Amino acid sequence: MFSTFDFDVIRRSLGYLFIDGMTFTLTLTTLSAVGGLAFGTLIALMRLSGFKLLGRIAGLYVDLMRSLPLVLVIFWFYFLVPYIGQWLTGASRPIRVGAFASSLITFIMFEAAYFSEIMRAGIQSISKGQPAAANALGLTYSQTMRYIVLPQAFRNMLPVLLTQTIVLFQDTSLVYVLSIPDFLGSASKVAQRDGRLVEMYLFAAAVYFAISSLASFGVRRLQARIAIVR
Amino acid sequence: MNYHWNWGIFWEPSPNGTGNYLDMLLSGLVLTIKTALLAWIIALVIGTIVGVMRTLPSKTASAVGFCYVEFFRNIPLLVQLFLWFFVLPELLPRNAGLWLKQMPNAPFWTAAVGVGLFMSVRVAEQLRAGIGSLPRGQKMAATALGLTTTQAYRYVLLPIAFRVILPPLTSEFLNTIKNTSVAITIGLIELTGEARAMQEFSFQVFEAFTAATVLYLLINIVVVTAMRFLERRVAIPGYISGK
Asked: Which of A57, A228, B68, B149 is 20 to 30 A from A7, comparing alpha carbons?
């Protein structure tokens, strides 16, 4: 079964796979997680703000994003972002957007919907007394959120946020549909050039497996450490 | 925006000669539903077995269940589909590999099985949590009544656990439908694939994707409504969800 295996093709392409491919994947994952969390928190605050209209808009956005497949959303933004860019900059033609920028915008917008649900649960898990006490101390709404509510919500939800980031890390492989050389994309390029699909895809699977299971093991450890005894 | 809108495009004949663009999208919708249903059946069957295994007293059974879950959860769905589609036929004995490669409709079967296995892990985890949420007394009472482990699961634990996890199972079913779109990479032309094809043929990007978006939203609404109905039908009196 493994007699015709060519391990050398993996060794030869390691540099390309990790320096180009994995760097792209990890940068995209990190920036999307940070951006998605920031935007997601904003959406969660909109939903909980008490302004009916604002809450409705945020709710519609979250529902829309969560009912569409990521592949379709990737295509949507790939074609939409140049037009939005044109509209924003007032250019006469749709602007050119690079592969990285396009996928980063997609993942931030898409993940924000999921992160916002996590942050909403986190904010709602905080007892009413906390914002009430902050209010009594004379803190404004934004101070209450910045210094009291959001830090606790973030801390409570950290394991869930990190788990979602692991899902995001796996989902970034879907930029394959735009022929962008992320880790899987570059593995696939080598696989097709050298006719070594078996070796390259097995190797890619092993790498994804190793990183994801290490990360989720870390999250479980963290969860046990920071769990607050109530 | 200097984009040329043309909403009439759906009624223009499509280049594959089988009707207009709307027919193309609808055939994609049918394929999405077919793939998702088959995948969901696989996910439910295997997910139930694995989920039950993880709650059994036997150490071996729960270890096997754990390994299964870890394997399928830590590899991206896209890579899993590539493994089943490109790698598996090469690793099998020659004849079996050839049979797999020459199978008619290979992308459809690979997608259904691949997405099914991927989702089975989610079902297993939900079911494990559902069984874990039941009071210990249920299992004990079943044992005290003289039921075997199989009977206890069949008549006591599973019927309640499945009712408890019905809402999360609904979203896992929606995820199954959404995940079939990943199979576009192994050549399954389902709804997203047809929208992409329509965009390439007609250059009407936004009309094509809007139509696909609307169709996905419709599927979601139908599934959610149907599941709400089912939840009410099977609700246990006395539980919060019950009457």
From this structure: B68
Tell which phi-psi region holds residue B105, choosing left (phi > 0), alpha (psi between -120 and 50) or beta.
left
Question: pLDDT, tens digit, for every residue of B118-172?
Answer: 999 999 999 999 999 999 899 999 999 999 999 999 999 999 999 989 999 999 9
With beta carbons under 8 A apart, name residues in chain A contacting B83.
201-202, 205
Contact A205 B80 (CB under 8 A): yes
**Paired tokens of A206:** 């092993």
CB–CB of B213 and A76 under 8 A?
A: yes
Structure tokens at A199: 């070796």
pTM of the model: 0.91
Domains and CATH numbers, chain A: 22-180 (1.10.3720.10)
End-to-end CA distance of chain A: 55
Q: Give alpha helix (H) positions in A90-196.
A: 99-124, 129-136, 141-143, 150-171, 183-194
Distance CA B238, CA B219 (A): 32
Find the distance separating the first CA and the last CA of chain B, reported in whole Å.
Answer: 53
Backbone φ and ψ for B189, nearest 5 degrees, come out as -90, 80
- Of the candidates A224, A226, A228, A108, which has an alpha carbon nearest to the alpha carbon of residue A165? A108
Helix orientation angle between B106-133 and B21-55, rounded to the nearest 10 degrees: 40
Tell me the pLDDT tens digit for each residue of B2-55: 678 888 888 888 887 778 899 999 999 999 999 999 999 999 999 999 999 999
